[in-house]
Amino acid sequence: MRGPPRAKVIESAREVGSRVLRSRCSRALPWLVALVSLAAPAQAGELPREHACPELAAAAPSEGIVLTRADLLRLSALLPPEVWRHRDVFFHDGMRMVIGACHRRYPQPGAYQRATERFAGRARLDGDANLAGYTAGLPFPAQSIDLAASDAGARWAWNCELRHRGAGPGGRFRITDLPGGAGDAQTSQGSWFQVLTAYRADIVSDGDRPGAAGPAAWVAGGRFTEPADARGVAWQQTRALA
Hints:
Blueprint: H1 6-26, H2 28-38, E1 66-67, H3 81-85, H4 87-90, E2 97-98, H5 110-118, E3 124-125, E4 131-132, H6 152-161, E5 170-177, E6 186-196, E7 216-226, E8 234-240
């Protein structure tokens, strides 16, 4: 059986590529916003102690254990009910999950720390929680966020999106399309990358403008390995500087 025309495959590749980039943090951010909004008011910047793990069920996994999809029941105590209810969307065959340390601190490079201190207090949110005034580093240092504020979740979400990731993230993707009518689900797999060319602490200018290595804020792309009709098809995207 012949597959769809090559032009249609390429058009589909562009659509999937956009979804890969949108899904990088979008799955985590709604839960992050919800968890912060439900948290009890606390002093600004109050963080749990490193390696201070909460008391969990006896079957809960401990640091260093490697889990696969067959071990999902051991994660049930660690996931919000909504995530557990839709676990088939988040976890798939072939996954390998290594349980990390509780509240582990990951040291930031000196350039990122210096940019955070230098530009602290300049980033702000508009009425729609869009970020403005950002240059480099962490937009909202932890000690500056009031967890009782209505926009605390949005501030943590922006911190998640603009956390230090070197020159940019990359990895493999797996997206399943579920047809609305009759037909089988189709799974797309491949690899993707994103190179950050602006708002980087390591190339920030001497002035207050975002450091940029080109006319774009970032360049991204990827290549498909599945399905067979799209194998080898690649895409590229750019985001112009504001």
